Amino acid sequence: MTAYFDGLVLHSSGTRPAVAELHRPEVGPGQVRVKVRAAGVCHSDLSMVNGTIRPSFPLVLGHEAAGEVVEVGEHVTRAAVGDHVVLNWQPACRNCWFCANDQPWLCSTSSGVASLENGVTLDGVPVHVALGLGAFADQVVAPENAVIPVPSALDFEVAALLSCGVLTGAGAVRNTAQVQPGQSVVVIGLGGVGLSVVAAARAAGASDVIAVDVSEAKKGLAEAAGATDFVVSSDALSKEIRGRTSGRGADHAFECVGRAATIRAAWRATRRGGQVTVVGMGSNDDQVSLSALDIFSSARILRSSVYGSADFDIEIPRLADDVLSGRLSLDHLITDRITLADIPEAFDLMSRGEGARSLVIL
Ligand SMILES: [Zn+2]
Ligand SMILES: [Zn+2]
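Above: the input record for the complex with zinc ion. Below: its predicted structure, written as tokens.
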């Protein structure tokens, strides 16, 4: 193996990332080296480029990925060389209060870590990796609890999607909102996560899955994911939704944008006693305003879904099984297959709200 590897490096927010050669970090005790085979371009990566999330620099971007274990350190028991694995950017420590109380997705050891130092540039400058991974690279060195072995029959491309967007979207439907057969669902924002919500809601037996986006161009993707209705977002959205839900509003609304305006739209699209699940990650200075009377009299539930409220170690094998058995179809999510060098253009596409997932094939 060579002493170098390629990664997509960002030097500061607001600049354009570029592919650079980096020194290969050693694999320490309890760590594994994964040859990345596919990595999805996720909105959180864009948030690091545009400054919404503030990691340390220089930074290897990327966190939604799957690959093959090529080296294991001492004491590693979870994975062996040759295993196909999905990467987890928020591995549960299994020791903190949240892990001990069955909420590993809120693990206080790994939550809120935007980047970790791991490796050096060819000039000897310490390098940081996004969300502990830095998966826009041909390899990643990570702790063993950040990899979950999956069947080798599962395509690397689909496996990569499970790692962030699909787990987030499907988990919001299954674990957080617990959508029941026959219920009506509105999904606002049809990126990779929103389309995963659509697919999972349909798989859960929702009778109506009303997909909403600002772009008419998302209609075909929404229908391929299983939407029964498609609506272009407008000021008349709640009226439109009521018209399609016997005048009541939907049982569930999923907000997959992360903006106050769309959280309010999701709130108004939901029936009395319905549930609004916020899946999109917004900014700290975007305030949501609801009247005290409305909160009381609407009897709605407003909650967020962090990383699909999922125990990654249980949910990833389950999702892999759902895909392999045909219960969950994800092929329509991949709208572009690209190289590391193409990622900046994929960010441009994402900024304009076009496509679903751009997937980097390594
Ligand atoms: Zn992500
Ligand atoms: Zn923990």
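Notes for the reader.
The pocket of zinc ion (ligand 2) is lined by residues 92-93, 95-96, 98-99, 107-109 (CB under 6 Å).
The mean pLDDT is 95.
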